[in-house]
Design brief:
This protein has 117 residues and is mostly helical. It contains six helices and two strands. A two-stranded antiparallel ribbon has the order 1-2. Bound molecules: zinc ion (ZN).
């Protein structure tokens, strides 16, 4: 799937929120490192959760790859991260098809990133 400018700024937003630290093994990365990913729970194909804060977290390459190959552990990991209520809400949103206003989301993310930087 193509990575666009909104994916790029969303990734930066998530990594900033996580202080450039892998949320599974707690290793910290330099800001410009390619080693830390913005990892999605529900795949980026689902537009309703593609740019949703609760649908993503920072994971290093190793942890990202491990969790993507162990779906049950990945679900458990996000459940622990979010708590039951937010996890349920996220799953419901993921299964709600919707059109999103990409430009509005992009502008919103730009403001949030500027605030965090
Ligand atoms: Zn890690």
């Amino acid at each position: 799937m193509k990575h666009d400018k909104i994916d790029a700024i969303f990734s930066k937003f998530i990594r900033l929120l996580c202080d450039f630290t892998c949320m599974r093994c707690h290793k910290k990365y330099p800001r410009n490192s390619q080693g830390l990913h913005c990892a999605h729970y529900h795949s980026r194909g689902k537009m309703s959760t593609r740019f949703e804060r609760d649908n993503a977290t920072a994971l290093c390459y190793g942890c990202h790859s491990y969790l993507d190959h162990h779906p049950a552990e990945k679900a458990e990991f996000f459940l622990n991260l979010l708590g039951q209520k937010r996890f349920n809400k996220l799953n419901k949103l993921a299964n709600t098809p919707m059109k999103i206003d990409k430009e509005a989301i992009y502008e919103e993310l730009k403001k949030k990133v500027a605030m965090l930087e």
